[in-house]
């Protein structure tokens, strides 16, 4: 199962990717963040003792997180702001810690956490009108660090207005393997 988590503040890249994958008979779940209300992670620790495995702050994360637990491949489609995920995407991503391993350990001279549910691959798709080299580098480094911390396979794709159609074809092929 592939779950596409998409912030639609710009393009409908996530919806178009979902449609392409469904045309190829690939099982997908599409989650739009457009009308979702996910609050921040307060790092309060409540999910590790008071309500083990659940955030004590009730919001739409209660809808999203169980779906992410059941997926094999998590695809996040996000507009990129200052080399990072969008506000809405970042909030969901931060709350994913509640369903991951709550303990860090040392691997290859890095602190890493266990993976999220059964997710074995994380794909971040950054969407922007026009990319600047420093912003490309910042986003690629951020995603690489997230993949390392989650201790799973992953990759990053940079999409702009000039390559959306080409990207959709190659991404659908890539995710189909």
TrEMBL record:
Keywords: Flavoprotein, FMN. The lineage of its organism: Bacteria, Bacillati, Bacillota, Clostridia, Eubacteriales. This is NADPH-dependent FMN reductase-like domain-containing protein. It comes from the Bacteria. Pfam families: FMN_red. Gene3D superfamilies: 3.40.50.360. InterPro entries: Flavoprotein-like_sf, FMN_Rdtase-like_dom, ISF_SsuE-like. PANTHER family: NAD(P)H-DEPENDENT FMN-CONTAINING OXIDOREDUCTASE YWQN-RELATED (PTHR43278).
């Amino acid at each position: 199962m592939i779950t596409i988590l998409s912030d639609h503040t710009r393009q409908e890249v996530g919806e178009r990717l979902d449609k392409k994958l469904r045309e190829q008979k690939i099982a997908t779940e599409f989650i739009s963040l457009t009308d979702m209300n996910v609050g921040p992670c307060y790092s309060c620790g409540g999910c590790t003792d008071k309500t083990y495995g659940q955030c004590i702050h009730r919001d739409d994360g209660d809808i999203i997180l169980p779906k992410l637990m059941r997926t094999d491949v998590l695809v996040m489609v996000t507009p990129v702001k200052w080399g990072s995920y969008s506000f809405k995407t970042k909030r969901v991503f931060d709350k994913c810690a509640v369903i991951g391993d709550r303990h860090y350990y040392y691997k290859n001279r890095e602190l890493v956490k266990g993976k999220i549910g059964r997710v074995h691959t994380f794909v971040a798709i950054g969407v922007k009108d026009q990319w600047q080299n420093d912003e490309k580098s910042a986003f690629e480094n951020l995603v690489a660090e997230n993949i390392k911390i989650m201790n799973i396979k992953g990759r990053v794709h940079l999409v702009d207005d000039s390559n959306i159609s080409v990207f959709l074809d190659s991404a659908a092929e890539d995710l189909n393997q």
